[in-house]
Every structure is written in C-alpha cells, then in structure tokens.
Amino acid sequence: MDGGSGNDWLDGGNGNDRLFGNDGHDRLFGGSGQDSLDGGNGNDRLFGNDRLSGGSDNDTLLGGSGNDSLDGGDGNDVLRGGTGNDTAFGGEGNDSFTWNPGDGNDIFDGGGGTDTLIFNGSNDAERMTIATQANGGFLFTRDVGNITVNTTNVERVEVDGRGGNDSIDGSGQTNVGVVLDISGGTGDDSLLGGAGGDSLDGGDGNDTMIGNRGNDTASGGLGNDSFTWNPGDGNDLFDGGAGTDTLIFKGANVAEVMAITDLGGGFRFTRNVGSIIVDTTNVERVDVDGLDGADSIDGSGQTNIAVALEISGGAGNDTLIGGAGNDSISGDADNDIVDGGAGNDTLTGGLGGDTFVFGGATANGVTETDLIIGYSETEGDLIDADVASNTVVGGNLQLTLAGGDNDIVVLQGITNINDVTFVL
Fold this sequence. Notes:
RTX_toxin/Mannuronan_C5-epim, calcium ion binding, Hemolysn_Ca-bd, 22-stranded mixed beta sheet
C-alpha cells in the first residue's frame, strides 16, 4: 500500500504487508503478520510488529508484540519497541527510546544528535545498573525479568523507579558525556549517579543518594534522606525536602580546610582541596569525616540552631569548630583543638593531647551545657575556659563558665578539679 502525497491512514490488517506513507503526515498500522512500514516524508506515526522506518521529519514508531526493528531516520523521533526483543535506530536528530515493564531485551543506537533512553520501572523492588562498555555505549540492566538494554550513541538516561524500594546504580557509567536523570519514586530507594552532571530525585520514602562524579543536583522529597559527597565528586546541590535530611561529606587523607556557612534558607559547605562547593536547602544534619591529615573543619558560620553537625577529625592535628546547633565533635587521634560553638554539644578528644575551647559563643539568654567524653589529663588534654565555679553532680565534674549565660561544661567521669589542666 502506497499513500502517495497527502496525509494518509493505512491499515494493513491481517497478513504480511508493506506500507509506504510517502509525503504527508501519515499513520500506518501494520496489523498482524510480518509487516514492513515506511513513513516516508512528514511527521508520521507507525504502529506495527516487525519493521518500521520513519524516514525524514519527526516520527513516532511504536512496535507491538514480537521482535521489531525500528528506524527513526532523520528528525526528532519517538521510538517504543513494545514487547519482544527489539532493535531501534534513532538516526539523525534528538531521539528517544522507551522501555516499559513487560518489554524484552532491547538494543538502541541513538545515532546523531542528543538521544535519550527512557526506562520505566514497576511498583516492585528492583535493582537497576548502568555501566559503560568498551564500545563507548552503556549496558542497562534490571534484575526483575533479567532485562538488558544495550545502547550506543546515547547521551541521556531517564529512569523512573516508580514504587518499591529500588536500587538504581549508575556508578559504573564512566562517560562524562552521559547525563543520568534518576527518580526513585515512592519507597526507600538507593540512587547513585555516574560520571556526568546528574539529577537524582528520591521521591517519597527514606532515600540514600550519592551523586558521584560531575556537578550533580539531588532532591530528597518526603522522608529522611541522605546525600553523600566523596573525594573526586563535583560541585553539587542538595535539597533535602521534607523530613530530617543529612549531608554526608567525606574528606581525604590530606590536610583540608572545610567550612559551613549560612546561605539563604540553607547552608554552603566548602572544601579548599578541589575548590568544592555543596549548596543545600532543607537539610537538618551534616556528617563530616575529615579522615587523615591536619584538617580544619569550621561550622561557626552555620547559625541555624535546627542544624546539627557531627564532625570527626580522623588522624592528624585537627581544628574542629561546631555551629549554632547541638553538635557532636570527635577529634579522634593526635592533638586536636575542639570548640563546640553554640548549642548543647558533645565533645570527644580521642587519643592525644586535646584542647577543649569554650567561651567563644555569643550570649543568647540560654544556658547551654556541653559534655566532654574521655577527658584525660595524663594524655595532655587541656580546658581553655574562664571558669566561675565547679561542683560534682552525679559523679561528673561540672564547670560553670564566667560571664555570658553561665554556660556549663560537664566532664564525664572526672570528680576532682585538680585532675583538670587549664590553659594559662
């Protein structure tokens, strides 16, 4: 059947058919049988089970049951293989190929332009992976149904996990030219980006997100979510959404300077090594691990009392300063300077001779209480504070600081003021 010029509607019905749309904006239906559909010129829509060719212009090719071959040709084409193991070619233009639950193991060559694989999950718990292959393309896998989609010349991947507790792992995608747009949907999801500048959306549920390389954007949505930055990652944005959300920042085994400062309704985390910036909104907790090296981790620029910092200096002589909230700070090994800042803080020096600093916080009309765990005069620990009085309460030495709001420092397990050394 040859539509010739004009906008045609061709229906092959039963049997093995060959349909040619030629000029015009045509609709071709192969029906049952082994059909060949060629849209020709114009913006065409092809529906069939076998061989579909869009020709030039912007076409929509929809395969049916069976193993189909779809060729979009020139133009910005929309390709859907349907059930069966399908092969799709985008040709020139910005093309998309969509995989839906129930489809088979497909192959998609995007051709020229900026092409997109769209992968829709189900409401089951699923594990999906994206990994670069030797030919420069990538392999997309899904454990439910043992699905594989092989791609070449594809620059963008859009994944929707929908319902269920999903794991969508793009960490094996090492091509910086490929962008991942991953949505976990409802459920407690684990989302990992790849080498490019990716977008992660946890959706509802308690989600775990890692951007990996590139400058990434993450949105937690509803639930208690976390976003992790690791050495080598880029400059990222994290909106925690509703719930109690956490930024996890991992340092390296080098000397680093990190700072947390107010930024609009959120805060900015900076790191001098690599000139890193992570901007956040709707984040209530920050976990920082300096690892080895003489690190400076300064949270004093963070003035939101609702944000709690958990800072671990790791090995090295570190300077650790908390923010306005109720923080937990651990110096770990070596000789550290620990300053909780404002709020009711828990301070641990760890091994080595550590100095605990008090009195830098501005009076706010509230008496704050800090707790020191593991104070050891024999290891060389020092207290840098102006003390007005001391007493023992419940087996712990309690120091009342002079001036301000008469803040209190409790030394856990210490019962005698003579067992404490002060900075002169």
